[in-house]
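Tutorial, part two.
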Amino acid sequence: MTDRTGIAGTAAAETDPGTSLSGRPLRADARRNRARVLRAARDLFAADGLSVPLDEIARRAGVGAGTVHRHFPTKEALFAAVVVDQVEQLVADAATYATNADSREALLAMLARMLAEGIESRPLKAALAGTDFDIRTAAPDVAARLRETLHDLLQRAQRDRAVRGDIDVDDLFALLAGAFATLRHADAEGAPDRFARLNAVLFDGLRAPR
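Running the prediction step on this input gives:
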């Protein structure tokens, strides 16, 4: 993945959600404000990417611009925090999929979730497809957990001979990136049908040879 925005450098210094930029624990009201900013930024970045002004994010969150800057010194740092939050949620959800006794269904459910979430969110799509944002540099621990999660689901399905055995986790990320690129050019009316077709093609392609 190639960082084309400088986001990775700013994100590497992103602090823990429970601490301030100085490293001190956040008060309860500050934690709530930070969460509101993240929710607003997630929604606005999903539609418009980095072109969204910070003032608009502050208005959507119901806080002052100074509050946003106290938690996130740059818009790039806020963008990175949104991505990390979304990827961490994907990793958490994968634990639920992993409880499925059907290893193929568990893997396909995770892939479908990643595809659907990436389509809905420009920041997450950038991270999953490896365009404009290098999550491996920005948040290496989170990136490693996502990769390990997908790798474990794939290996389990391969051990069960439920999916083809000649692919690896890099192939899965490449397939997702290709799907995102295809859906980017679909109009709003045709996107749901194309999404369904891509899901079917992806899932059929993973099927173990008979």
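Residues 82-206 form one domain. In part three we will examine how such features are distributed along the chain.
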